[in-house]
Amino acid sequence: MNTSSKLLVGLLFISSFSFGQNLSKRIDSIVNDNYKKNPEIGISVGFINNNEEYYTAYGKLNAESQTKINKNSIFEIASITKILTSNLIAQAVMDHKIKLDDYIDGFLPNGYILQPNLQNKIKISDLASHQSGLPDLDFPKLMELNPQQPVSSVTAETLAGIINNCNELKDYGKYRYSTIGYTLMGQILEKVYGKSYDEIISANLIKPLHMTNTLTKDFDVENRTTAHNPNGGIQEFFKWNITAPAGLIKSDASDMVAYLKAVLNNETTVGKAAIITEKVVYKDEKREMGLGLNIVSDDKNTIYMKSGDSMGQSSIICYNRNKKWGIIILLDQRNSKMRQDLLNTIYDTVLK
């Protein structure tokens, strides 16, 4: 490489780095302004732009702690777990274990029996895009029974009863958000790999990406944030048990940026699987869905995103493959409006 070429590469690097720094400062300003208006809600944000990482965070781990929230503070990512599960499903497709248009019948655990009129109808892609038509868990009832741990009472027998007693797919082919669908996807993974969901996600995502603060159990760690319900009361982190593939994961901004970095790299296994999940498999007048991903497009951008809300925390992940940026927003209170407004402001004023 001659001197002029080296100079050009150097100038391009400096320009790109400066652009990234400018974006991060503007994002930090928006997050800081949001925190000043809502000082009782802790925030952690991770941002990646052309493989460069940036972080900002505000608030304390809990009311009694002087420890500030940072990029390594643990939050519930809740239903963002679903895009990790769908990435594992796409990896299973790449491993020739399944096909997305396979019917689920032959992959169901022992004890699950589909009624005759439901057989050879529901595809794996239907589960992943929330259009299977299967009945779901009654969360309001579960919350009434146990407000701190509503899914703790859900067992394999509970799920088998729901599936086996279903004789009609009322909204088959229509979007209806489903916890059971993603629970079944986790069980399909367990069947084709002969391992537990915990072992599969650890081997295929957590360990390869060095996500050292991404937890599937043992959540009582020092860097864990405190969860708060919409009224500010303390809420326990959920123990998802058998429904784990739908919402179990606890993680931090740093690890979720590591995941985004792998997703945006077309050469990684995770990145190749993510491209499979980005294919539109459901569309109506309100939304486009990939495998677990909401897809929003205009004439210049295609955005992939997924939100997560436990009873005590809210989060959202979003990325643009073509422009090579991604963002994760984590709040220590359940406040879906705040996390959506925060993302919208950042996107409209910085990323768009």
UniProtKB/TrEMBL annotation:
Q: Where is the signal peptide?
A: 1-20
Domain (Beta-lactamase-related): give its ranges: 39-338
The cross-references to Gene3D superfamilies, in alphabetical order and at most eight, read: DD-peptidase/beta-lactamase superfamily (3.40.710.10)
Key words of the record: Signal
> Which family does this protein fall into?
Belongs to the beta-lactamase family.
Matching entries from Pfam families are given as: Beta-lactamase (PF00144)
Species of provenance: Sphingobacterium detergens
**Record-given protein name:** CubicO group peptidase (Beta-lactamase class C family)
